[in-house]
Amino acid sequence: MSALRAAFLILRKDLLVELRTREVLATMVLFALLVVVIFAFAFNIDQDATQAVAPGILWVTLVFAGNLGTSRVFEGERAHGAMVGLMLTPGGPVAVYLAKVVGVLVFMLVMEIVIVPLTLMFVGITLPPEGIGVLALALFLGSVGFALIGTLFGAMLGDARMRELLVPLVVYPVVVPLLIAGVKLTGLAFGQGLAEDPADWLTMMVGFDLIFAGLAPWVFARVMVE
Fold it and tell me: Which of 73, 135, 183, 193 could form a disulfide with 55 if both were Cys (CB 3.0 to 4.6 A apart)?
């Protein structure tokens, strides 16, 4: 059985479990919605300030909610003592990692489809048509990078005490370059700084994703096997 085939079967299992339970995705969406509402009311006194900080509000919301998904990415296997069996699948640890990353990415993208329009509505932002592509690309690249990093550290710290606290403390500093680029691109998509070229920020996000797409599976295989 190839690694891709094994990864597909693990991903299919995770998605079927989520469709039946709706635990991870529902938690992410509800948490993100709560954060958006709080931010919207907090900055409601000044519309100009709200529009200026809207990209930051959006990315903080997505990262906080995404952390809930990455923290629980291996929860089912740990709860039932299936981690060793999962690592012994024919595809090996790399197939497991790939399946979990794609699963987290799917959860994040579904959450963003719901949360991004609500965020724009609550903060009173009108997205220009020419900014839709930039925003969609920034969200996708940011979600890929966050899924790569979050899944890696979610697995490495899964057996640690207070892992719900440790995972974000480790993940957030690593993804800072990704967040900076995402906020800048989102601001450009909203019409802030139209003279600035988004290509440099997009290149930064693509480079970040490519580096960790090659590095993270190797680290995951070494750590989880040992």
Answer: 183
